[in-house]
């Protein structure tokens, strides 16, 4: 129960001091990496918990300790004391058992949310909603709704998150829940780069936040206002938000907020191209994110450091960070329990739809009653006139509406059919071009083998027989010369059938030329990073051709399906192996449900002949990372 009691007073290691030049003065800012997780809970609380006289006191003390860890952002401690509160509640016979179980689910949900374990967080918030009715536990019900909305926000499902936050604002009676819901509405618009709406929500929060609400919310809003300033390249204004928050967060032991502020300051230095300072600050943020077990924040910092190293052309470091990024992603995926969460989510959505249907039925009954009353009044005055005229008007109106609807439907159907035909023609055209090229390559190779092996072999045999005869005259010499010339012509022709671009050109310029052709007239950003370039270009023509076609297939799939704006390709020769890393920021897909298409089958067939391996990491709305490793053999290196 008291595993954090033995850690004692935390030690602080000052990693660096960086000079920041502002317009009016010069400030010195220090950044701290903590050797161990600081213990912000008074020792007296642990002693009281150890000597607790009854079950109710025990549960109250556990909840209080969990709240302190929540403010400090100690994710492991939050989850631990949430689980402890749940287990102690189930074990003891207390009057408010359902209330404590609801609080435990809320605490665990926020702990997992800060760790980036969104499925686990969703599971506990959905359990809390189902076990906390609005009539009996109004406040806890909307606290769980708020947490569920944040899960959808983090997963970029904005259309689902928006109505949840709006209902918290209009229906919750807890002022802190209302304030947080407004703050998260601002976060949605900030993610969508609508900075005007986001700023409006943030200023409303700062204006109306009560003095009894923890000032941590105020600091979180200050960080987001700084992010907006940074988005508009107002770096000095951004630092005026980030630096004070960093200092206040450390003073108040809000360590998760401190890490976020340090990360944002690192982004400022990166934007200013002060790469040395940015590297030190971001590494400080990464050390603390690891210490606090903030998995999602670790991924964000690694992504920023990868971009930093790529900007400095340190592609080997960038590739190593991407490998680490994949490992952290696998850790997060391993800790998720998607099946249980999906079942709970479906139940929750079903209940919400049932509520919506009941509400619509009530509105419909009211409207029908009102319409009936109005019809009765009108009948009293107009019954004689309407008896004759109403059927005719009704038929005309119905006919006109039906005609109008049919015209709109025909037009819409025509547009849909046109788009479908265009899409099918485009796909057919691509498939036809690709099939034609593949067929031409195979036919060239077949003709080259036939000419070289069959015709060339026969000519060589004839030449050998003529040369071995005892008598030679001038006519035989001329025949031998003609056979020799014919043999050389056949050999040259067979070699010319094999594509010259893979024989004469290394892989790097071929890929760069192909990327330039793809990006012409397109708004996608595609970057290619070979490292070290001279070693990568030493691979054999056969491997060059296979690798080029693999990259070509990956790009084709990405451009057709991913809807990505940025695509990064890393090609690294290291430790007798060739490593290809393909990353995009597109819509992604669920790897467990994905159906393997022809493109991936072709890639796997090529990798099988090269003894290569492929790993795919993707999730909805999170892009895709594909890692390929090909062992280098003597036949795959140029002599």
Write a structural description.
By secondary structure, the protein is of the alpha+beta class. The protein has a domain of 131 residues: Histidine kinase-like ATPase, C-terminal domain (Heat Shock Protein 90). The strands form 2 sheets. The protein has a 5-stranded mixed β-sheet with strand order 3-4-5-7-6, sandwiched between helices. Strand 4 and strand 5 form a beta hairpin. It is extended, with a radius of gyration of 34 Å. The chain starts with 11 loop residues before the first strand and ends in an 8-residue tail after the last strand.
Number of β-strand runs = 7
Q: At the first level of CATH, what is the class of the domain at 506-636?
A: Alpha Beta
Termini separation comes to: 66 Å
CATH fold-type name of the domain at 506-636: Heat Shock Protein 90
Note poorly predicted spans. 1-26, 338-346
Q: What is the C-alpha radius of gyration, as a whole number of Å?
A: 34 Å
Please describe the structure with a list of short key phrases separated by commas or semicolons.
two-stranded antiparallel sheet; five-stranded mixed sheet; alpha+beta; 639 residues; 71% helix; Heat Shock Protein 90
At a glance:
The chain has 639 residues and is of the alpha+beta class. It has 22 helices and 7 strands.
Q: What are the SSEs and their pairings?
A:
Layout: E1 12-21, E2 26-34, H1 43-50, H2 55-72, H3 75-91, H4 97-114, H5 118-131, H6 138-154, H7 158-171, H8 175-191, H9 195-208, H10 216-231, H11 235-251, H12 255-271, H13 275-291, H14 295-311, H15 315-335, H16 338-467, H17 474-497, H18 500-504, H19 507-519, E3 525-531, H20 533-536, H21 541-562, E4 566-574, E5 577-584, H22 598-609, E6 613-618, E7 624-631
Parallel strand pairs: 3-4
Antiparallel strand pairs: 1-2, 4-5, 5-7, 6-7
